[in-house]
Each structure stands twice: as C-alpha cells, then as structure tokens.
Specification:
It contains 12 helices and 3 strands, in the order ααβααβαααβααααα. The chain is mainly α and about 375 residues long. About 30% of the residues are buried. GO terms for molecular function: G protein-coupled receptor activity; olfactory receptor activity. InterPro entries: GPCR_Rhodpsn, GPCR_Rhodpsn_7TM, Olfact_rcpt.
Length: about 375
C-alpha cells in the first residue's frame, strides 16, 4: 500500500514535471550526448505521463484567487504588470546581449551577471504569462500537472538565484581583497562551477519539496489564495496534517537563505576591512561603486524572501504574502538589470558603444542615397 501511494502521489507528479521540462526547454542546456539519450526515452516517458491522469486522484484543477479580484483596479494592475514583464524581459535580454558582444565585459563578474539575468527571465516567465493570459481569457484555473510544474520551476529558479547571489559576493571579495590572484581564483572553470553549483542547489530544493507538497490529499475547496502555486498557499488546501512537513520546509528554506547570506556577510566583512585600510580615496570609491549594485540587489531579494519564509505565518496575512511575492517574483527581475546598468559605468559604456555601432550603418546608408 505504501509503495502504491508513493508511486501514484509522489513519483508520478515528479515524472510529469521532468517530462514537461525536458520536452520544452532544459534539453537545450544539456550536452548533445545527453540530448540524444533524452530524445530516445521521451516517447516512453510520454506514454507513462499520458496514463497518469486515470490513476492520480488529485489531478483536478486548482483555482487562483489571484491579484485581479477587484474589478475597479484590475485593468490598471494588468497594465502595470504587463509593462513590468515586458521591461524585465527587455532589460535582462539587453544585459545578456551586451555582456556577450562587448569584449570589455568578458570578465567573471559579468559572466555571472549574465546568468543572473537568464535566471530572472526564466523566473518571471514561470509566473507572469499564466497570470496575464488568465486575466484576458477570464479564467483562473490551473491543472494539477501545471501547478506541480510551476511549483517545481519556481523553487528551482528561486533557489538557484539565492545561491548565485551569495557566490557573486565571493567574486567581489576576490576582486578587492586579492586582485593579483583574481584571474586564478576566478578562472573560467571556477565560474562554471559556481553556475553549476547554483543550479544544482536550486534543482535539489525543487526535487525534494515538490513531490511531498503535491502528494498531500487536497480538500474539495481548491481555491488557492495566491496568484501562483507557492508551497504555503497550496498546503493550506491539504486535508492531512502538514505541521511536521511545514517545519521541515521552514528549516530547509532558512538554510537556503542563511547559507548564501552568510557567504555575503563574510565576504563583505572582509571587503569593508580591506577598503578601510586603503589609503587611496579613489580606490575606496571604486570599491564601493563595484559592490553597491550587488548589495542593493541582495538586500531587495533576500529581504523580501526572509520576511516571507523566515517569519512565522502568524506575523503576516495572505494579503501581505501576495504583496511580498509580487515584489520578489515580479519587481525584482525587472530591477536587477536596471540597478546593475544605471549604477555601473562599464555597462552604460557598453550600451553607448552598442548604440553607436547601430547608428553608424544607418548614417552610412543615408549617405548613399
């Protein structure tokens, strides 16, 4: 009985998520050998996934309460979120383009920043498009599979960003405290290890928590008082006792926040000590300018997440959870590239050079005519 319960309620949801992810986007990030193997097994996975609905008793749709529950403000809110979504995609896309095309930005810091922008684009695309389409079609439902996939992608991406932001502080520590050894300590291999470690930590969180969260039996009321499938909101619909699991999940989230945040604190403690010993005023200004953007992004992202996940539920209401979730799932992906570009002379210089290259051919073509 236990084995049957695990297969039907834990293994099948994870398998569905794996199939959806492999079949849509992640396959392009893997080496071609893995892609060849995955393409071979996809038909078999598809057959299993197709038969899941007839066995899974928890496969009925969920309904989001959402953000657009007030008709008098729903249109304005839709326009604002649509603008933020488009701006976030464009800003992060431009950031990745500049880092890839400008040779002056081919440094470890900007290499990590380009992956942060990629995570932000994937992060906001996991939640916002579904919400906007639901508003246009006047529907608020999401299937069990869709909720499982969204929950898994959200946990994976937010966890990966937590770890990446923490490890980016190490990059700033090496650049300021050990500048002569920077090319060795932040080599291409080390940068790829940081990226791989961030993705591994995030995906581990997703694979551990998603199967358990979605395996609970849900009551007849399937209205999620949220705008996406976030674990605390989904668990409120469970008919079983979730106290022990919520405690485990709380400890897991605290560790995921505190471990990278401890790296940030330790790195910047050493940085402040080094900067304080600098005799050059110009060197101090350059050091603070280099770190200020990262500190701002870390404060915004970690601050909102700590309030949501580390404070007990009795200290915040569902309405406050929605506001905080909007802040770090919708606003932060837009603010990150803007903070790094507006406060960074290297990025603004790269943007001016890119615009100059774009205008030059236009002037030449006008001269021909």
């Amino acid at each position: 009985v236990c084995q049957e319960y695990y297969v039907l309620n834990v293994f099948f949801p994870v398998l569905k998520v794996c199939y959806l992810i492999i079949n849509s986007s992640v396959v392009i990030l893997l080496p071609w050998e893995c892609c060849h193997l995955i393409q071979k097994i996809l038909p078999y996975i598809s057959t299993i996934v197709g038969s899941m609905e007839e066995y899974n008793t928890s496969s009925t749709d969920f309904t989001f309460m959402g953000l657009f529950d007030r008709k008098e403000t729903s249109g304005l809110l839709f326009a604002i979120i649509s603008t933020i979504f488009v701006t976030a995609l464009m800003a992060n896309g431009v950031m990745i383009f500049l880092i890839q095309t400008d040779l002056r930005l081919h440094t470890p810091m900007y290499f990590l920043l380009s992956h942060l922008s990629l995570m932000d684009m994937m992060y906001i695309s996991t939640i916002v498009p579904k919400m906007l389409v639901d508003y246009l079609l006047d529907q608020r439902t999401i299937s069990f599979v869709g909720c499982t996939a969204q929950h898994f992608l959200y946990l994976t991406l937010v966890g990966a960003e937590f770890f990446l932001l923490g490890l980016m502080a190490y990059d700033r520590y090496v650049a300021i405290c050990n500048p002569l050894r920077y090319p060795v300590l932040m080599s291409r291999r080390v940068c790829w290890m940081i990226i791989a470690g961030s993705w591994f930590g995030g995906s581990l969180d997703g694979f551990l928590l998603t199967p358990i969260t979605m395996s609970f039996p849900f009551c007849n009321s399937r209205e999620i008082n949220h705008f996406f499938c976030e674990a605390p909101a989904v668990l409120k619909l469970a008919c079983a006792d979730t106290a022990l699991y919520e405690t485990v999940m709380y400890v897991c989230c605290v560790l995921m926040l505190l471990i990278p945040f401890s790296v940030v604190l330790a790195s910047y403690a050493r940085i402040l000590t080094t900067v304080h010993r600098m005799s050059s005023v110009e060197g101090r200004k350059k050091a603070f300018a280099t770190c200020s953007s990262h500190v701002t992004v870390v404060s915004l992202f970690y601050g909102a997440a700590m309030y949501t996940y580390m404070l007990p539920h009795s200290y915040h209401t569902p309405a406050q959870d929605k506001v905080l979730s909007v802040f770090y799932t919708i606003l932060t992906p837009m603010l990150n590239p803007l903070i790094y570009s507006l406060r960074n002379k290297d990025v603004t210089g790269a943007l001016k050079r890119a615009l100059g290259r774009f205008k030059a051919p236009q002037r030449g073509s006008r001269g021909v005519f």
